[in-house]
Structures are given as structure tokens and as C-alpha cells.
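Researcher: For the record, we're logging two predictions in this thread. I'll number them. Prediction 1 follows.
Model: Prediction 1, sequence and structure:
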Amino acid sequence: MNIEKAKCLIKKLAKIDSQSGREKELSEFLVSYLKRLGYSPKIDEVGNVVVDFKKDLWVTAHLDTVERVSDFREMGNLCFGTGVADDKASIAAILLALEKAAFNCVFFVDEEETGIGSQHFAEVRKPSKAIVMEPTELKICSKHWGVFEFQVDVVGEKSHASMPKKNAIELAIELINKLKVKGKLNLLGIWSKPENIYVTPYLCTVKMEYLISSGFVSKLIFETLEIAEKYGKVKILEVADPFESILVHKILEKAVILAGIEPETGYMPSWTDAVNLNKKGWDTVVFGPGNLENCHTEREYVDVRDVVLASRVLENLRKIYNV
């Protein structure tokens, strides 16, 4: 497959602004593109673009990106810019594969924010198998970490800043240190009140998440609430147990080998649409071109050669499975 063709497609996709909630232009581009290939895509009630051959294996990607932090640029076989790896390289791989092989695919809206696209899709479709395309450096991620995301409004006490009483920021730091011993804790955001007034901070909101590689989240939730509720109001934002693929990773592995790639396994530490699908009984595996670590930053990039390889993997699905 022509690398320049793949690069041109990634560039077109990347230049279409599709931040969460603003995916319409990209959806229309995909519908037009798919129709030119001879397919009959549909846009469902929430905006997902769906190509359905009534088979039991799906390939998914998401349309949206985070807020743009860098514009598209290229350097040799590398493409840089917001969304190139997460998730437009995967979209490109799917579109290129569809030129040679037909398979079920769905492009979800709003993965980066609410997850409403995959949530709706999982609710209205019977459980099936899915290859959820995300940047994994072409590793077969049959293991998906769980997550417990929550927010705590730590309460202090107002006073003149020169005569502090209960400083909400200091209390929040104390809470964070207590929670860190419970597991892999990521700090996602911290805000305090008041701002720009010489007053001891009386409220500090901390957004955090635990990433869980094994076991059940329920015990961790109980232990966290027991500690955090002593500091203020706790709001639970997302809960998902870790899970593993049952069969679909083996199907993907065969397709990877047929593409001439030495299969590598890995795990997905971040929330993806696979979580919503798994909650409804789907068998999922995460796979795709790109490096997750650099996504959402100005360093985000993808190697176009990996996009071409990913498209070959998808083409091979028809050879080993009735897609």
C-alpha cells in the first residue's frame, strides 16, 4: 500500500477539527468517503457512523479529539499534531482496509469526554466481539485496566491569609498522601477558592483516579470513601473493573501474523470505549498504531508505516474469520 496515500489521508483527517461534541464535519467526511467505496454508512441517534454487515465482529475507532494543542505537521514518515494518533491514525487504517475488505465498523462520538457514543451503541446492540482501535504501538492489548475516578471537595475554614486556620489546600495534600498508599493514584486536577483574594483557601477540589491492573474496584472504593469523606464531599465519576479478552484477541493475533508482524502483547491502562462495551458483555481487545504516552500533548505523533501495517491486519480479518 502506498505510504504517501496513507499520509495524505491522515493529513485530511487531522485537519478536520473534531473536538468532543464537534464531530459533525468529520462524520460527514467519513460518510462521503465510505459511500465512494460503495458502502452504505448510517449515522445513529447519537452521531456514531456505522457500517453494518450483520456479522459478529466489529472494528471501532472514535471520531473526537481533545482540545487542539498542536497543528498538523509531517517529518518523513512521521505525522505530528493533536489527534493524529488518538484516534485518526486508526480511522485512516480502517478506511484504507475497507478499500480491499468489507467488515463491520463503527466510529464513536465523544470518547474523550462522556463516552456516550459507545455507551449508546452497547445498549442498543447485542453483545459481540470488537477490536477497539486506540494507540497501542500495534501491541495486542488483551488486558484492560480498571479505573476508579472521583472528585473530592476538601473543606477548610475562611480566615485572613496572614492568620490561617484550616487551609483547604494543605488538607487536600494531606488527603492525597493518605490515598497514594492505597494504589496507583493519578492526580487529574486541583482547584481552590477563593481566587485573587488574600484569604485562606476554604475549598480545594481535587480530581483523581486509581488505575487498577487486577482485582475488583469495590474494595478500593470503600477504603477511599472511608478516608476521603472525612475531608469533604466525594463525587464518584467513573468505575470499571479490569477485564481481559476471551477470544477476539486470538482472532486479532492471527491477522497480525498474516500481516507479517511479530505479535506483541500489552495492556491498556487508560479508559477506552472498550469499557462501555465490556460492561454490556462484549468481548474486546485494544489495538492500533501510535504511542499512547505522547497523546494529548504537543508531542503526539504516529508513524505512517504503522498505519499501513494496521490496515493490512484489518484486511486479513476476512481470511481467518467470517467478518
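Researcher: Logged. Prediction 2.
Model: Prediction 2, sequence and structure:
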Amino acid sequence: MKKHLTAAVLCLGLSLLLPGCGLEQLRDRYIEETGITPTPTSAPKERVYMDQFTGNVQTFDGINLVLQGEDGSVFFDASQASVETSHGLITGDEVSVIYEGRLDGSDPSDVKALKIVDDLHKEKQLSEQTIQGTLVRLTQNSLLFTDKKGRTILCPTAGTAQYYSAGIREGLPVTVRYLGIIPDIDPGYGLTLEVPQIRVLSVSDTGSIPAKPRRSDQALVSNEYGDEYTVSTNYSRGHIRSLETSSLQLIPNGSEEAVTLDLSGAECWFGCGFCSGTGVDLVHSGVGSEDSLEGAGVHTAIGDDPASLSAGSTLSFVSGEIVGMTANTVTLRTSDKMNITVRTDNAQNSAGDLVYGKNIRVIFDPAASANTNVLQSIRIRNSS
């Protein structure tokens, strides 16, 4: 073998001088004499190009992210990206996308978004905005209202602090505090302007959220003739199943059956919003009791206070069908027709694989989610 290899090496050296001993002939002779086929050297790998793009969030549907840059809008497929921004993906917020590939206007599928992060040199921070209007509809995850320009606007309210001093009802004047951008456009007669990518901070009929009301053993009520009198009150607790404006479906503690309560005349303080699972303390009169609230007249409804809840004790949740996914988020389509995005990293998951079309329940931390539109999840379960 050594003799054969020596001959091959000599021939390789002479091949530079002798036309009769080329590289192809040398390879054939080496195979013939040794029975060994040389393994070709692999081609050098193509260099991976990595860069960063900074822009303002225009839209995000759970998969696709559009940023407004200096030269126009840029589209990113975020399905494999990790969302690591402090405010989620709120319209108008300045974020950076770290990606592989080249943004040269060619095939966008060649670009792979890896991370979405806060811009280290952000020139403009998100500022609180206020808009006033008239309540049309309120659910556990959404608010529909008409603003002073006559536009009908639909926005997400999962985990949003809310206060109504004398009840919830259609036509009630409300003040909405939020982060993000509500476009200054008119969607047209009979159409709704949907703004799913803002973060609503609070909704109130007084302009702000007051201190949590105290429980009282008595309440002042009036009859149909306007005469006022004092009644003794009872106290009960339960958890929200759903909300349809003034109609609250509540599961009282110790019961598996939901009761429907009228909140049209009740003082309502909900620090965590009206999400399903949220605990509620009720001050009521009438025939209602701890075991049965049927026929109860609610005077005050006090929801859980996020400031006094530990992450392990909160029961507020959103549930729905998975319609969007990134490396560490899922976007759910809820029963009240809202798209809500939640982070899934660091959450306890007993739902198994998270795949499109699956229905899940996500218990989230209202305090940690107060200023972001990507809710911080704690536990993930199958919907029941």
C-alpha cells in the first residue's frame, strides 16, 4: 500500500509537468491499484447573513409582523421568532427584528426572523393616550364604543382595570386610556374600526380608577316612585364565567351552576377586568345568599385586585382557538371574537402540543400584563 501511495503522490507532483499524468488519470489509477474511492471534499457552506431592522409596529396577526421603516413597510414572518419586547407588539411602538437573510426586495421567504426585541436606541417612548365615547357593548375580553367623531371602535380589554360608578349599561359615557395608535380614519357607515394591537390601560365612566370600594352592611336604594330607603345587605363571592354588557354570568363559590346578575345599577370596580375566572365579591340584597344568588339585587361588585394577588393565586384566564404562533407566543381567537396573544415560555403546560386549531385555556398574570398586549401566561390547560 505504501508503494502505491508513493507512486500516486509522485504522479500527482509530475502531473504539473507531464501532460500524460493528469488529475483525472491519477484518480483512476489510484482507485484501480488500491480499491479505495477517495471521498470528495464537501463544498464550503454558504455564509449566513445576519442583520437587524428597526421600525414601528403597524400590524401583527399572531404570525405576520409589519414594521414601518424609513423607506416604507417591511413584512416579516414571525412564526419562528421569539417575542422579547417589554410592551408586546403595540401599534406605533419602535421594535427591532434580528433576522437571517437579506432584505433586498427579493423573495421574503429567504428572510428568517429570529428575535423581536426593544430598540436599544428608541427615540420615542410609548405615551398614554385618552379617548372618550359612549359604551355600546362590553364583554369579558372587549369593549365596543362610539367616539365623539361617530366612529364605532372595537378594542381588547383582557386584564384591563375598569370602574363604573353607578352600573354598566349601553349609552354610558366612558373614558378609555390606552397605549398605541387608533388610526384617524373613518371606517365608513355601519362599519367597525378594530384596533386589536393597542393596550387598553383602563376604562371608566369617571375618567379614572378610584380606590377599591369598601364593603358595606347597608345600601341606599330607591323605589319606583323615587323614594329612598336603607336596606341590609349580604355578601357573596364567585368567579366570572362571562359578561354581556350589564349581564354578568357568575359561578358562586361552592356551586357548579352559573347565575345571571344585573349590573346595570351596581357600582363596579374590577382591577383585573372581566376575564373569565376572575374572582368577584358581591354586596347584594334580596333573596340571594352564599348558596343561591338568584333574584339578588347587586349594589356593589368588586373584582380581584391585581396588587394583592400573587402569580400563583390568580385565576383570570382567556380561552380560545389557536390561530397564530411564534417561537414563544400563541394567539387565540376567543368566543367574543377577539384575537389575544399570550407568551408561553415559563408557563406550566398540561395541554400537550400547541398546534393550530387547538382550543386551550391560558391563566395569565394581570399585574405582569398591565402594560403589554402580549399577556404573561402562568398555566396552559385544555379548554373544558
